Amino acid sequence: MHAYESEFREPLINGLDKNYTKITDDLVAPTERITPMWLIATLITGAGACFFVFCLTWTVWFGIGTWGLNKTIGWAWDITNFVWWIGIGHAGTLISAILLLFRQRYRTGINRAAEAMTIFAVICAGMFPIFHMGRVWDAPFIFPIPNTRGPVWVNFNSPLLWDVFAISTYFSVSLLFWYSGLMPDFGTIRDRSKGKLRKWIYNILSFGWQGTAKQWQRFESLSLVLAGLSTPLVLSVHTIVSFDFATSVIPGWHTTIFPPYFVAGAIFSGFAMVETLMLISRKMFSLEDYITINHIESMNKIIVLTGSIVGIAYLTELFIAWYSGFMYEQFAFYNRILGKYFWAYTIMMTCNVVTPQFYWIKSIRRNLYWTFALSIFVNIGMWFERFVIIVTSLADDYLPSSWNYFSPTWVDWGIYLGSISVFLFLFLLFSRFFPTIAIAEVKAIFRISSEVAKVERAKAANSSTASNGGFVGLQSVGPLNKDDKN
Amino acid sequence: MESAEPNKFVVGLWDHEEVYLHAIAHIRAKGIAIYESLTPFPVHGLENALGYRETRLHTAGFIFGATGTTLALTFMTWVMTYNYPLNVGGKPYWPLPSFIPITFELTVLFSAWGMTLTYLVRNRLWPGRVPRIFDKRTTDDRFALVFDAEKLSDDELNAIRSICKTEGAVEVKDKVFAENEGL
Fold first, then answer.
1. pLDDT (tens digit, 9 = 90+) per residue, A386-419?
2. What are the pLDDT digits (tens) for A254-285?
3. Residue A204 to residue B104, Cβ atoms within 8 A
């Protein structure tokens, strides 16, 4: 192809035995067998998902008094979990949209799973505000629908309403992005399936995909425009989530730095979750050649960058609180660091600011065990970031007589851990029935970034006096074609 | 229902996209019409090689997006100033800055959905559609060129077969569909 690829770059598809046939075989294989490990994991997380439903039913039946909320802290784990899950979802869109616009080829190995993760994370996130309403059957009234009460409309001035629009748009656009990319790969699975039922199901899922030149042309146009739309969308979503807090008059929340700080935090936690999941699935489904150390290192670089942005935001907040000369603001931050929730602040600072700095060391960035451990740390740290912002700011408010402490009940725990189970359960189902790696997109970079292509180019350069400085144009067609099996 | 679509085809299969692109250029230069081209992934430069014009899908996206923008602004203005004007703490009845987030979200929502639905309609994709599969391997590892064999003589078909071979096709085969099968 006419794309230039530096020969110093590491390949994104490893293995000298690779060709298009092998790529299809490798990437479809996980959908064609059930492994005992997958079955056990699915059963466990499925049970957890049932417990999630049980806890939600309990909440609806007895009311949200079953949560640990009190008069002072009217939002605690529910909103913490909501923001945490939404943040996790951001990496999927970032990888699929922003990295597409920036032409980062390493996205092809991880975009599909990251987009799936976005969808499942947003599903989990949405549960918390909906069930925090108490009377869930009134939930549709968060939308401006015609009604017989006046009509009374929703308040278009409220960031909470903007959030409704932002999250629902985000969910449905991510779904379109994900599914439009899946259709060609379902076509691939359909065309190699043996059983009649399996063929029928995958044909329905593929919408009757053929892969004609015109279809692909429109496909590329669609992905590019959806990427262009999703990029400002993903930034707007977390910006609006941060408005929920920033437009209030609670010290510790009323901060103009929130939008960029929340977006960076969201990308940070999202990449960590992508790593956690991808490190497991590359092992579980033997995808080491497609999700290489190179992919993991690239993600680690983004983690250290966004982690540092988040760190600077924490320090800026502290400085501004002191510099403002406003005693309530100063107290809020003093209280965060040394008050009754000092332990949460310490965990947040350690996991988000200190430990990701290990990624400046190349050997740690490329080490799977370190990466796995640090990605879990980031997940924990980012949960505590939201907890610190939300609960410590509310717990000690303007009126000392109403100062309070939040303790979660078993229902809080059940819903939180249950949502993690739901997320993992959906992800496991996805990775068993859907292609976890975008097959067509990996094939599209095969001639550019695979180990096979690089070796061939090196051979061609040696044989033809390398007059073109490694640039691979059409002149390489001859030698490439002759000794290439595929 | 009578179909104008042909049912007899010659299918050439390639296994390398660069050879395939050259083959398309040479075959078209000889004045042979290509009925369809199928590839397992989007090959760069394929639509140029085939002489397709640029897709207008993004224009559809823009129109749908503009519809969303207009709808959001009009609706919020109607609600806040005409249908149920509400004094919220003395704030203006028509707070334009407050409308920006929702207007933006609806622009994106309409553009994305409108464009995707247009994409599905134009590509003739829907759940349950049974497509014509010229060769199963075109979603795996083969790049196919399909030629309409309905109205061509045996000599012309042989010429197509041989030019495919000389242009590096790894396989050339005939494919016949039943009337209206998979259309």
1. 999 999 989 988 888 999 999 999 999 999 999 9
2. 888 999 999 999 999 999 999 999 998 888 88
3. no
- Confirm whether B133 is domain-assigned: no
Q: Is residue B134 part of a domain?
A: no
Range of the domain at B118: 57-122
In a domain, B10, yes or no: yes
Looking at the complex, report in whole angstroms how far the Cα of residue A106 sits from the nearest Cα belonging to chain B.
Answer: 17
Under 8 Å between Cβ of A313 and A298: no
A77-127 pLDDT tens trace:
999 999 999 999 888 888 888 888 888 888 888 889 999 999 999 999 999
Nearest to B126 among A188, A207, A210 (CB): A207
Q: Is there a single domain that holds both residue B68 and residue B106?
A: yes
Nearest C-alpha of chain B: how many angstroms from A6? Answer: 19
SS3 B180: coil
A440 contact residues in B (CB cutoff 8 A): 40-42
CB contact under 8 A, A213 and B52: yes
Number of H helices, E strands in chain B: 5, 4
Neighbouring residues of A444: CB distance < 8 A, sequence distance ≥ 6? A108, B41, B42, B43
User: What value of ipTM does the predicted structure carry?
Assistant: 0.93
Kindly write down the DSSP assignment for every residue of A132-146, as one continuous string.
Answer: HTS-GGGGGGGS---
Gap from B99 CA to chain A (nearest CA, Å)? 7
Subunit contact A210:B132, Cβ cutoff 8 A: yes
Beta strands, E only, chain B: 8-14, 36-38, 143-148, 171-176
Query: What pLDDT, on a 0 to 100 scale, did the predictor assign at position A3?
Result: 64
pLDDT score at A397: 85
CA distance A37 to A34: 8
Q: Where are the domains of chain A?
A: 20-305+408-446
Distance, CA of A276 to CA of A371 (rounded, Å): 8
Find the mean pLDDT for residues A49-61. Answer: 96
- For residues B14-40, average pLDDT: 90
Q: Which chain B residues contact residue A476 at CB under 8 A?
A: 18
Q: Contact A233/B120, CB-based, under 8 Å? A: no
Contacting residues of A for B139, CB less than 8 Å apart: 184, 187-188, 190-192, 209, 211
Give yes or no for residue A467 having a pLDDT over 60: no
List the structure tokens of A205.
Answer: 């899922």
> What local confidence, expressed as pLDDT, does residue B182 receive?
65
Number of structural domains (chain B) is: 2
**Percent of the residues in chain A that have a pLDDT greater than 70, as a whole number:** 94
| CB-CB contact of B130 with B182 (8 Å) | yes
Using CA atoms, how far residue A301 sits from A70, A365, A450, in Å, is 41, 8, 21
